[in-house]
Structure formats: structure tokens, C-alpha cells
Design a protein that fits this description.
With 267 residues, the protein is of the alpha/beta class. It has one domain: TIM Barrel (Alpha-Beta Barrel), CATH 3.20.20. The chain is built from twelve helices and nine strands. The two termini are 29 Å apart.
Length: 267
């Protein structure tokens, strides 16, 4: 059983939902990421999504785009992201780590080399935003052969057929993009999310994490009542961007926000 499956099963048995923070590896500098990962776990994170910086992050809004720019200015690469994950795993064997990014860095490394490196780094899942499922067969096979979960995005307009395809090909969990647009944009329509989750549940048994638009504890609490997990990214990275001259304060504010989300989700 994968770490992701075990985590979601344990949470379900205790009546809790997964808190899944996202940060961009290397933002604002490579030395910040590893201690921030550990601090997020202490604050209540169940899974960590670690963003692989890319020069054209088309699904991401301005906040995460700028995070990628800061990380790339420090020469952060896919291999360096994997090195950070390797260091994290030396002292944390229980928290799943999911890489979230774009296909170009993986293609540059080579699918097989990447899947081998992900296995060595004990990565638990890989979410490749711009790799359509129709073109992902090779990547899926290589990852699954190495016990790494391929994770797919579902959109508000995903059809029953597409949900079934991703539920069959994917593992670990599915990531539901709760609004049309980029990360950090717009506000959640709870009724729309609830209706879509009913459709998704009818077509797959995989856990569903909900992201894009989760900004505060109240939103996290509301969303946790609909899905199996809550993903928060832009709201965290905004704390980094607002405190580039005081990264200890940035870390403290991220911990405070995650702690409030965890408490609200559990209440």
C-alpha cells in the first residue's frame, strides 16, 4: 500500500480530511524549502505538494508564477527538487510528498530517468499539469512500476468518461480544480463544487482533493466537508512574497494559517 493510500485510509477511519499545502521548491531560495516542509507537517499537513518551478507555469496565477521565477533565479531544477525531497525523507518516513509541475522538465530528463529518480527520492505521487491522459501512458506505466502514484487533475467541465479514465489510470488521489481559471483566482461556488463532487464520486472510488480557491480557515472547513482533502497553495506563497526580507516571519505566518485550517477542518 502506498503512503498516499495509507494516509487517506487512516484519515477516513478517523473521520478527518487531508490538509495538503503546496509550496514551490526553491522559493524564495533553496535553503528555505526543507525546513518549511518540516514546519508544515508540524502545523498539521497530511500530504505535501512540492512544486517544480517552470518558466511558463500556465495553470498558475501571478503569485505562483512569481514563486517559480524566484526559484529559477536560484538555479532550482528538477534534480535539485528531488534532492530536497531526499533530504526530507531522511527524517520523515510517513508524510507523502507529491511533485506537481509541468512536463518539459520531465521530458528533458527523460521519462525513465525521472521515474527512477523519483523512486530513489521516495516520491509518492507525480501530478503533471499539462500532460493529457491520452498522452500519458508511458509515464503512467513507468511510475506505477516504481510504486509512484500518477495523479490527475479534474476540471469543472470534466465528463463522466474522462473522470472514469483518470480514476482508472490514476492512483493516490484525484485533484479537483474547483474553479475555471488559474491558481489563486476567483471564489469557490460551494453548490457547484458539491454537485461536481457527486458526479465524481459516481465515477471513481479514489479520494478527491479540492484546490484552486482555498484561501483561509473557513474556506478550508467548507471544502473539507465536500471532498477528502483540501489543497492550499497561493495563500501560503503570498506569505512568502510579503516577507521576503524576513523569512522567519514568512514561515511563522504559514504555520499560523495552516494551524488555523487544521483546527477548522477538525472542528
Amino acid at each position: 500500500m502506498s503512503r498516499l493510500t495509507a494516509t487517506f485510509e487512516a484519515l477516513a477511519q478517523s473521520g478527518r480530511k487531508a490538509l495538503i499545502p503546496f509550496i514551490t521548491a526553491g522559493d524564495p531560495n533553496p535553503d528555505f524549502t526543507l525546513p518549511m516542509m518540516h514546519a508544515m507537517v508540524e502545523a498539521g499537513a497530511d500530504v505535501i505538494e512540492l512544486g517544480v518551478p517552470f518558466s511558463d507555469p500556465m495553470a498558475d496565477g501571478p503569485v505562483i508564477q512569481r514563486a517559480s521565477e524566484r526559484a529559477l533565479a536560484h538555479k532550482m531544477s528538477l534534480r535539485r527538487v528531488l534532492a530536497i525531497a531526499t533530504e526530507f525523507r531522511k527524517s520523515n518516513q510517513h508524510t507523502p510528498v507529491v511533485l506537481m509541475g509541468y512536463v518539459n522538465p520531465i521530458e528533458a530528463m527523460g521519462y525513465e530517468d525521472f521515474s527512477n529518480a523519483a523512486q530513489r527520492a521516495e516520491i509518492d505521487g507525480v501530478l503533471t499539469v499539462d500532460l493529457p491522459i491520452e498522452e500519458a501512458a508511458q509515464n503512467i506505466a513507468l511510475l506505477k512500476a516504481r510504486a509512484v502514484d500518477p495523479i490527475f487533475l479534474l476540471a469543472p467541465n470534466s465528463t463522466d468518461e474522462r473522470i472514469k479514465m483518470m480514476g482508472t489510470a490514476g492512483s493516490g488521489y484525484l485533484y479537483y480544480v474547483s474553479l475555471k481559471g488559474v491558481t489563486g483566482a476567483g471564489h469557490l461556488d460551494v453548490d457547484d463544487v458539491e454537485a461536481k463532487l457527486s458526479q465524481i464520486r459516481a465515477n471513481t472510488s479514489l479520494p478527491v482533493a479540492i484546490g484552486f480557491g482555498v484561501k483561509d480557515a473557513q474556506t478550508a472547513k467548507t471544502v473539507s466537508g465536500l471532498g477528502d482533502g483540501v489543497v492550499v497553495g497561493s495563500a501560503l506563497i503570498s506569505k512568502i512574497e510579503a516577507n521576503l526580507d524576513d523569512l522567519e516571519r514568512a514561515k511563522s505566518e504559514i504555520v499560523e494559517l495552516l494551524t488555523s485550517m487544521r483546527q477548522a477542518m477538525d472542528s
